[in-house]
Design a protein that fits this description.
This protein is α+β, with helices and mostly antiparallel strands and 318 residues long. It has one domain: Aminoglycoside 3'-phosphotransferase, Chain: A, domain 2 (Alpha-Beta Complex). 32% of the residues lie in helices and 17% in strands. Strands 1-5-4 form a 3-stranded antiparallel sheet, covered by helices on one side. A 3-stranded antiparallel sheet has the order 6-12-13. A two-stranded antiparallel ribbon has the order 2-3. A hairpin with a 7-residue loop joins strand 12 and strand 13. Helix 3 crosses helix 7 and helix 4 packs antiparallel against helix 5. The longest helix has 19 residues. 34% of the residues are buried.
């Protein structure tokens, strides 16, 4: 038996919350997260925990899917941010940008999530989600979640509601009409048909609470964690909500977002183009696909250009 040192065991279990109901995730979520971690360990320099064992608990022996992984010392970057000097904050933002740049340089030819077969080979399979369902909802059917060979196939699946938890009751006529309208727009879109943006690995919760840093050397990243729901999408669709510490002044966040965006643009020139105003219409269509089955008419203001959280979008002077 191998001695793996200090090990962290994470169990995903059914949870019951008063007034909300139960939470359940798709059976593809944990295998995909494990495959993503192993892929990153094998093919990148991004620091991630090593996975030793995992089990999807199909026999319900544990009561939830689980995995045993390497315990990595470190604290979330948002915990220590206020203790850092301005120079240390700048260095950490540069390190964060370098990690994200490496993600943007991972390219595969399909849209979906990573998996690993019995021979250890990685492949793109159905897209997973980190979302948990609520009472009365059913998880997405993996057979309708990809992988997708084109942006059009993917956006139609998004607009159809195939990739998210859904209520057991049918959609209202209003939602069905809106969904059909968006799908027809996708099918007739020259922007979608002609889009040649590469498919990159998207950490959907890439944020400071999921970036661990060394307490003694806080400008060095010890691990990037929480890869649930990671997926390959067109670069213009990779838009994690980058969260700063609570109470962080807006002018400082804008400054450091510019530090991050300029560094990523240096490392990955194509990234800047993916979030220029030239892609506003394409990203707006992607947003409408996401909202096609959940927002009522007038609830979303589509006249405003899509906002890119990591860059702020406004920093790109096109």
């Amino acid at each position: 038996m191998h001695d793996h040192g200090r090990v962290l065991v994470r169990v995903s279990y059914w949870c019951f919350l008063k007034g909300i109901g139960y939470g359940i995730s798709t059976h593809t979520k944990l295998p995909s997260e494990v495959a993503t971690l192993r892929f990153l360990e094998a093919h990148t320099t991004i620091p991630v925990p090593r996975v030793f064992f995992y089990d999807n608990d199909t026999d319900n022996a544990v009561g939830g899917a689980w995995m045993a992984m390497e315990y990595i010392k470190g604290v979330p970057a948002n915990w220590m941010w206020q203790e850092l000097s301005a120079d240390q904050q700048h260095q950490l933002c540069t390190a964060i940008a370098d990690v994200y740049s490496e993600l943007m340089n991972i390219r595969l030819p399909q849209i979906g999530s990573l998996f690993q077969d019995l021979h250890g080979q990685f492949f793109v399979g159905p897209m997973t989600t980190m979302q948990f369902g609520e009472n009365g909802q059913v998880p997405p059917d993996p057979h309708r979640c990809g992988p997708f060979l084109s942006v059009s196939e993917w956006l139609i699946a998004v607009a159809s509601g195939y990739l998210k938890f859904s209520p057991r009751v049918p959609h209202t006529e209003q939602k069905q009409n809106r969904m059909k309208s968006v799908i027809n727009e996708i099918r007739g879109s020259d922007l979608v048909r002609d889009d040649a943006t590469p498919f990159v690995l998207d950490h959907v919760d890439f944020s400071m609470q999921n970036i661990l840093i060394h307490r003694d050397n806080p400008t060095q990243i010890s691990a990037v964690i929480d890869w649930e729901g990671a997926r390959f999408v067109p670069m213009w669709a990779a838009n994690p909500i980058f969260r700063w510490p609570m109470g962080f002044p807006a002018e400082e966040s804008e400054h450091f977002l510019q530090v991050i965006s300029e560094r990523i643009s240096e490392n990955v020139p194509q990234w800047k183009d993916a979030f220029s105003h030239g892609t506003d219409d394409l990203r707006s269509l992607g947003d409408r696909a996401v909202h096609s089955t959940q927002a009522g008419e007038g609830e979303v203001d589509w006249t405003k250009p899509p906002y890119h959280h990591l860059s702020g979008n406004r920093f790109f002077k096109i």
